[in-house]
Amino acid sequence: MAAKQLLLLAFSILNTIASTYVQQVVEIRSYTLKPGTRDSFHQLVIDRSLPMLDRWKIRYLGYGPSLQEDSSYYLIRTYPSLGSRQASEDAFYNSPEWKQGPRESIVSKILYYTTVILPADSIRAWVARLPPITADPADSIILSSLNRQFIENFIHQDTIKHSAIIDPDFVCIESDGTIVPRAAYMHDWADAYNKSGYTSFSITDENIRIFGSTALVRSKTVYTKNINGKTVHGNSIYTDTYYRRDGKWKCIQAQITPVR
């Protein structure tokens, strides 16, 4: 994800929680990794680090390979205040769960890292001065937020929130070519994640293209699942089609393609 798009995504998420966190800070951590380790580091972040952050209720805004070189990586987290950040990270990094868990496998791939801590208001001010990345940058922000919400709805099996972004004319085209209408899709959504065997599920490589009142939102999923006691890593590419109906973007079609 380009830096401009990353800041826009951060801005969108921060706006949704601004009413709760009055003096919110954003921590941007930039890692320089040992040569040839970035792919395995990324997988460890997805499989081990992010689930821990979720359990410890540490909010992260973004993560992934940086654009400038193949040894760089970033992680962006947000905290209610500077003091709560220090307390939260002290507890997290001193916990037995971290020290006896993924710490060694993750730290062993890091040469060094730098940390920048900024007030959330600064990011909002910078984003306001960015030139648009599309004819209407607000639509890109909304669609990126909806894309993230789509995945969060799946992981948390939140049918109420999901129904709000799924158009009445929605269909899902499954990886085997089956076309599933909205009613059947929403019925299966309620327990789809639990039945899937997924142990982690996230997205990367977001791409948004807007054509008037229609938009294509494409991302790559990165997941692990447990199949017959074995851990399996995999990816898929999905393209969601959105249509602006009565001034609001609604998903009218989802299509999933597994990466073989």
Low-confidence stretches: 17-21
Q: What class would the helix/strand composition place it in?
A: alpha+beta
Within the CATH hierarchy, at the fold level, what is the topology of the largest domain? Alpha-Beta Plaits
**Which range does the strand content fall in?**
35-45%
Top-tier CATH class of the largest domain: Alpha Beta
Q: How would you write the strand order of the largest sheet?
A: 6-5-10-9-8-7
CATH architecture of the largest domain: 2-Layer Sandwich
Quick structural summary:
With 260 residues, the chain is α+β, with helices and mostly antiparallel strands.
Describe this structure in words.
The protein has 260 residues and is an alpha+beta fold. It folds into two domains: 3-129, Alpha-Beta Plaits (2-Layer Sandwich), CATH 3.30.70.100; 137-258, Nuclear Transport Factor 2, Chain: A (Roll), CATH 3.10.450.50. The protein is built from ten helices and ten strands. The chain has a six-stranded mixed beta sheet with strand order 6-5-10-9-8-7. Strands 2-3-1-4 form a four-stranded antiparallel beta sheet, with helices on both faces. A hairpin with a 2-residue loop joins strand 9 (230-245) and strand 10 (248-258). Helix 1 packs across helix 7 (137-156). The longest helix is centred in the middle third of the chain and has 20 residues, at 137-156. The radius of gyration is 19 Å and the shape is globular. The model is unreliable at 17-21 (pLDDT under 50).
Features:
Nuclear Transport Factor 2, Chain: A, single chain, Alpha-Beta Plaits, four-stranded antiparallel β-sheet, alpha+beta, 260 residues
